[in-house]
Amino acid sequence: MLGIESDVKGASGIGALSQAADKVTADKPAGDSDVKVKSDTGDDKGGKASGDTKARGFDAIKSKIAKGAAAAVDTTTNLSETPEAPVPEAYQPNFKFKVLDKEHEIDEILRPVIKDAETEKKIRELHEKAYGLDSVKQDRQTLKSQLGEANERISRTDSALETLNGYVSSGDMESFFSALKIPNDKVLAYAVDLVKRQQDPNYAAQVERSRAEKFDRESYVTQNQQLMASNQQLAVQQRTLELDVHLQRPEVSSVIQAFDAGMGNPGAFKQQVIRIGQAFASSGKDISVNEAVEEALRVIKAANPNIGQPQSPQPGVQVVQPSQKPTIPIVQGRGTSPVKSTYKSIDDLKRRAREIAND
Q: 4-59, pLDDT tens digit by residue?
């Protein structure tokens, strides 16, 4: 079009549009926009009309090219201002794990595989199972051995019971008593007593009462032992609590700290109190917690009287007391200077004599 295509050939985009606009402006005749009327003839008027038409055509082409260039610039600007997607931070895995309160680390050969939390979880579980397998195998072997021993004992007991049952079923009481190692005299005494009970109902009732009382006594003894064990455990807990309270007293804590530090054992004083209480208990005397603590303090202070006391100044070192601040004596003013005056005449001497007399 008007030679524009050939001049902008090879250009593209905004450059092509700009070159086309410049070409249109350069090729526009100089007199086309402002054609002067030379005469009133028809030729001049026709030339003017033709020039106006060309000018409007060039202006329309230039306006379209300019709009296209602006649109291309806006598109390029929008594309250049598109924000880039944020790059996600690299995942930081934790290679440490624990099995049976013991800390381990994931094998280095598998660390590069861990890229996210899900992979880390799977690798961690595999390691926990692998490291815990040895302990499980050991526990399983122990339980298996114990179970084998228990099964063996049960098997021997079942076999012995079957044997005894066979003796009773066959009426072989001799073998029965012999297997249980029951002496013949006890068997004979039981047989005589059994015959007597069968013949004398009163005797039979008396034997039954004796058996019931014996059962009750044995049950009472068992319950009493269990109660004593429970009371003893409760007493130990109560004494332990009392001891902890006494050891927190300010007058005792300083001795405890010094004694424990000297023994190199944080619980040395407490152990000493417990040993003193046990010693009195073995001699048949149950002392209180306070008495045991006081006895421990007495024994420790007998060996080291100054333990737990604040350090006093070393002998021979004099403590300098702060002296009083020097003060300026107050001079009673009489209109005269406190500085000794000089007498220059007899009148001065007389005046001074009168002052002394007045004082």
A: 444 444 444 445 545 555 554 555 444 444 434 344 444 444 454 455 655 566 56
**pTM of the predicted model, to two decimals?**
0.32
Residues 6 or more apart from 16 whose CB is under 8 A from it?
8
- Distance, CA of 77 to CA of 64 (rounded, Å): 20
CB 289, CB 281: distance < 8 Å: no
Instruction: State the DSSP code for 323.
Output: P
Side chain identity at 326, as an amino acid letter? Answer: P
Tokens for 314?
């070393």
Residue 297 CB-density burial (10 A; 0-12 exposed, 13-18 middle, 19+ buried): buried
Q: How many angstroms separate the Cα of 3 from the Cα of each of 11, 16, 20, 131, 238?
A: 15, 14, 10, 85, 115
Q: Where are the strands (E) in the chain, listed by range?
A: 96-99, 102-105
Q: Are 262 and 278 in contact (CB under 8 A)?
A: no
* Summary count for the chain: helices (H), strands (E): 11, 2
Contacting residues for 313 by C-beta, under 8 A, at least 6 apart? 319
DSSP, collapsed to helix, strand or coil, labels residue 87 as: coil
